[in-house]
Amino acid sequence: MIQQPVLEQTQQKGKSQLYNILVADSMSKEGLAPLLSNENVNCVEKKVDEVEDLSVYDALLVRSATTVTPELMDQMKNLKIIARAGVGVDNIDIDAATKRGIVVVNAPEGNTISTAEHTFAMIMSLARKVPQATMSIKNGEWNRKGFQGTELRGKTLGIVGFGRIGTELSKRAKGFEMSVLVFDPYLPTSRAEELGVTTADLDELLSKADIITVHTPLTKDTKGLLGMENIAKTKKGVYLINCARGGIIDEEALEHYIENGHVAGAALDVYEEEPATNHKLLAHEQVIGTPHIAASTKEAQLNVAAQVSEEVVNFLDGLPALNSINLPTMSKELYETIRPYYELTKKMGDILSQVMKTPVQEIDVQYGGEVADLDTSVLTRALMAGFLSHRVDAPVNDVNASLIAKERGIIFGEKYLTNTVGYSNLIKATVQGEGRTFTIQGTFVKEYGPRIVRINDFNVDFYPTGHLIYIQHSDKPGVIGKMGQLLGEHNVNIATMQVGRQQEGGDAIMMLAVDKEVTDEVVKDLTSIEEITYSDKIEL
Ligand SMILES: NC(=O)C1=CN([C@@H]2O[C@H](COP(=O)(O)OP(=O)(O)OC[C@H]3O[C@@H](n4cnc5c(N)ncnc54)[C@H](O)[C@@H]3O)[C@@H](O)[C@H]2O)C=CC1
Ligand SMILES: O=C(O)C(=O)COP(=O)(O)O
């Protein structure tokens, strides 16, 4: 696939960035198409221990096989995003990623159906001993007595963890006329009612279910959830299934209850240590197993690879992450609605940081009109990230912006903006520094894009992009001419120009868009013009 020479560090690439992406576990090539067809992306498919220089990669794509440790993150100095093409992120050190400003995303819905179907295949296999019978006939036997099974109809299926997979599984169980009992401490009663399932506490589920299947993430609370004590509470002859994560059913305890005959059978897709070859539990006739393949269908792999590819492309393009583990997640609808404002606030933060070079104590963001109804915390984080990215050496983004601001003693807050001065939406950001306050206001105009409409007390209207020069001056005849001449002498061409003033002859500002980045010398020379009191360049 995708094997091209690795590019140099993207940080050195300036504006037309090229991104290096490492696909460390096997993924659907069709699903990776958004990455492979992207001319700004260089995609390399290799295991991490086969890569010579990990520091060049901007994004790391994994499934469950690669363990993403703090040490690996330290080697991947340029890493901005870790994308898990699947659900479980227990192989990724999320805290370490957050501290390093690395966004972690997953693909939570892509493999739900496949995993639910595989779990159901496990239930049926246990009930009818299909794998054992297959082994027997393959060994040349014709044993019609040794594999008596049990019907599923009328039996109770206990589902521990009633999220996406648990829910899909319950629908399939009902199709088989089973009763479903659910334990999930985080499941709202209304949701259980809506889905028509009976909830129970764990002890009740353990004592009533004929078949128990776990579908929780592996956390400190769920590790060993079905251990010595809890398995003892189950019915004699119970079947146990783990297609979630190794360790939710304690393997030692399971072996104990298999050996003493309390547990009639178990089906495992996942193990405490993987790869699990020659696993001691699988030596037992009553235990059937698959090698972590619940999500290994063509459909699921296409879904998850496509989902993370799109996420990575969007993220590297500066858009917010949709399914982030270390940021609040958004619905697709909210994502689409918030996206234009996100770009705007990020640019506003970027501008503020460049015109406010002094230490800053406080950043205050106000939202008015349509935007105020959205989850504005996403936008404030984007603004903070845009602002701080000029000030700290470490990578700053939405994940760690609040943390970094707090570490630097910058207070930030959100308020409601009542007066939107005729705009359908308005965002006002004020930065207070030592002896100076700077305010900008922006709006998003549908089919027109983000606009900055006010700087301090001056009305302007410009698209926040490219090479800009900001000037404060007195509104006197001839200033614009002098400024134009000076830029001409420096061979700087003005593309567009905005002038704002409050009253004739008073204070005024200019915002110029120029064709190339100006030097610090040009910025300084501009203030040699008598009427110009301040000038700065802004690179967006
Ligand atoms: N074998 C495989 O290939 C696959 C395994 N998985 C595993 O399945 C797990 C579940 O996946 P989804 O249903 O998509 O996740 P989900 O997040 O939709 O559902 C997990 C549910 O577990 C519940 N939960 C959390 N802590 C709990 C506790 N202490 N007791 C009871 N319930 C608890 C949550 O409230 C949630 O409803 C994943 O975390 C992953 O580890 C997922 C996909 C494929
Ligand atoms: O999505 C999950 O949590 C899974 O366990 C699937 O793992 P995999 O991507 O098949 O290594």
UniProtKB/TrEMBL annotation:
Q: Any idea where the ACT domain is?
A: 468-540
- Top-rank taxon of the source lineage equals Bacteria
Which Gene Ontology molecular function entries are recorded, alphabetically? Answer: phosphoglycerate dehydrogenase activity
Entry EC no(s): 1.1.1.95
Q: In which pathway does it act?
A: Amino-acid biosynthesis; L-serine biosynthesis; L-serine from 3-phospho-D-glycerate: step 1/3
Q: Does the keyword S-adenosyl-L-methionine apply?
A: no
Q: Enumerate the catalysed reactions.
A: (2R)-3-phosphoglycerate + NAD(+) = 3-phosphooxypyruvate + NADH + H(+); (R)-2-hydroxyglutarate + NAD(+) = 2-oxoglutarate + NADH + H(+)
Q: Which UniProt keywords apply?
A: Amino-acid biosynthesis, NAD, Oxidoreductase, Serine biosynthesis
Membrane-spanning intervals of the chain: none
One short Pfam name that applies is: 2-Hacid_dh
Similarity-based family: Belongs to the D-isomer specific 2-hydroxyacid dehydrogenase family.
Q: What does this protein do?
A: Catalyzes the reversible oxidation of 3-phospho-D-glycerate to 3-phosphonooxypyruvate, the first step of the phosphorylated L-serine biosynthesis pathway. Also catalyzes the reversible oxidation of 2-hydroxyglutarate to 2-oxoglutarate.
Q: What name does this protein carry?
A: D-3-phosphoglycerate dehydrogenase
Species for this entry = Thalassorhabdus alkalitolerans
